[in-house]
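Example 447.
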Amino acid sequence: MFKTEYVKRVYSEVEAKDPHQPEFLQAVREVLESLEVVAQQNPAIEKNAILERMVEPERLIQFRVSWMDDAGKVQVNRGFRVQFNSAIGPYKGGLRFHPTVTASVVKFLGFEQVLKNSLTGLPMGGAKGGSNFNPKGKSDAEVMRFCQSFMTELTKHIGQFTDVPAGDIGVGGREIGYMYGQYKRLQNEVAGVLTGKGLSYGGSLARTEATGYGLCYYVQEALKVLKSDSFEGKTVVISGSGNVAIFATEKATQLGAKVVALSDSGGYIYDKNGIDLDLVKAIKLERRGRISEYCTQRDAEYHEGKGIWGIPCDIALPCATQNELDGEDAKLLVKNGCIAVAEGANMPCTPEATEYFLEKDVVYAPGKATNAGGVAVSGLEMTQNSMRLAWTFEEVDTRLRDIMINIFQASAQAAEKYGMPGNLLAGANIAGFEKVAAAMLEQGVSY
Ligand code: NDP
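Predicted structure in complex with NDP:
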């Protein structure tokens, strides 16, 4: 818990204002715990109310999204965009379409995004958005009508110099394409206003792979520096089977590891011989199917429900959703010899799990650092759009790797500087914060 009156007060004010936003409160608490020592050593932070401003979004937009389903029935969903902090650049962050999306969820994601974008070293502020719309089971035409309606409102709030959304859970190339088409139609302008676009209309090579690949580049560097080790010969368990999980599996395998498990919200598969990724891609990316279908074509086990963290592994990469790995899961992983846990998803480990990993000297790497590769390559997509050119896959991939190594180094150095060597969570929070705080101080009380 907090040690100083200042941070205690900041947190209790957030708690009083948003008592029904558990995900947001969880993210704020974790970050404030890391920043307490920074605030103690830098009185300008309290004097200029920097923490109070950091935890309050610059703008939160909530809107109605009406659309017609294939049966001719009018459906109503709720849309959000939270523009959290623009101190270091235009707002940037993904859109999530999932039934669990609420103001609390977009605020926690937007708050984390501010620090994540700062860590990339690129000039991007933080935002997030989405809807409680569930694309699962909808026809392409229904998804298109929803996306067009969603963008009809969102277009009033975004722009290439203002706010540049991207994908997240439930928002992939199909959804970005439909939203981009609608933006262009409404604004009559071709601009890099969304990232994650298709390659034929301004997308960047390696954007699809970026988050999963970036996660593995970060882990490879952390293992090298902290444990004189690597992915080579390691057994890896990865949760989820969406964009991040699939490309984390691909890169970990290329780096010499054996990935033995993947999951979705229905259950998990265990293939002791190593996951056949081509089959997973065919099921999940081409057919939008369920991970259980894997076992109809391979000699592998399928188990319904949670439980994936009970599989013995050296490295665990949670890549599905928030709070999917709790204290009990953490104990199981450590008991089974896991040496590193790195988050592909945003906030997948509960506070109890995180605490346990840090206590047991497991290499624990937080999502805001390890999954920053996605937004980093989105930033590179914006650069290419502005320059009206396209870099090769290798060029983007090399920049991505350099950015991920820099993020690790900046986090490790910040942790060291404030007396917490090896604590990559505190290090990421501090390194991300310092740049944003400096920009806010220099710009005066503008927001
Ligand atoms: P996808 O929609 O491609 O895949 C999400 C995966 O997680 C699916 O396998 C899904 O299973 C599973 N999942 C989602 N919600 C739940 C839930 N409530 N319980 C159990 N499983 C669930 O999303 P992404 O791969 O893009 O995103 C995964 C995570 O990575 C998210 O936390 C996202 O914020 C984070 N992230 C993504 C980035 C990107 O570039 N895409 C960038 C940075 C972070 P099912 O199909 O059954 O729902």
